[in-house]
Amino acid sequence: MPPSPPALPCALPSQCAPLRTAPRGARPAAASPRVGLATALAAALALAGCAGGPGAGPMAGSYVGGRVRLACVPFARALSGVRLRGDAAAWWDAAAGRYRRARGPADGSVLVFRATPRLPDGHLAVVTEVLGPRRILIADANWVPRRVTRDQPVVDVSAANDWSLVRVYWPPARQMGITVYPVAGFIRPPRPASPAELDARAPAALRIALREDGDP
């Protein structure tokens, strides 16, 4: 589900901490496909309490397809293979006894945001790559209203390093938001998938989710 009301995770772009990424063509051949984002997210963690600075490059938070009316739940279900239903925040309890639940991320797992005044139904995202102990990339629907986003950075900002609190990149501003969101945890998928597989699967997951939307 999108933040409500649909607005920047920070009040103003100037209140967001920056995230800089490298152009895709500038990456060394032997490096991870998202090595530029890994470096950028390390910088974002260092700037967790700061603001200002240059904006991000074009690689973080790219969109899948055009504008669509799509909730986060059908897309997360189609991309991850976790066949749960109901409001996003209810997935954590619904997964008990059906799927493995974990405090830390893994490729292909579903990140479950708790319900808050800004996210009254919670939110779901699929982890598309774990970049480090406190840095991941996600794909999700409707975080940016009417958009499906991939390569969207998320950082763990919890004091205990347990992924209970996160900050999320805001693509329209090309910066990390400063709003801190509570997280229930990560639901492991029935079958693991690599970052490359998840990336290739995203367009088909979007088509499937659009057929299923309205049946949370």
Can you give a write-up of this model?
- The chain is α+β, with helices and mostly antiparallel strands.
- It has one domain: endopeptidase fold (from Nostoc punctiforme), CATH 3.90.1720.
- The chain has helices at residues 35-46, 72-80, 91-94, 195-212, and strands spanning 17-18, 62-63, 101-102, 110-113, 123-132, 135-141, 148-156, 165-170, 175-176, 181-187.
- Strands 4-5-6-7-8-10 form a 6-stranded antiparallel β-barrel.
- β8 and β9 (175-176) form a beta hairpin.
- α2 (72-80) packs across α4.
- The radius of gyration is 16 Å and the shape is globular.
- Mean pLDDT is 80; it is low at 4-33 and 43-58.
Question: What's the total helix number?
Answer: 4
**Strand residues, percent:** 15-25%
**CATH second-level architecture:** Alpha-Beta Complex
Let me know the average pLDDT. Answer: 80
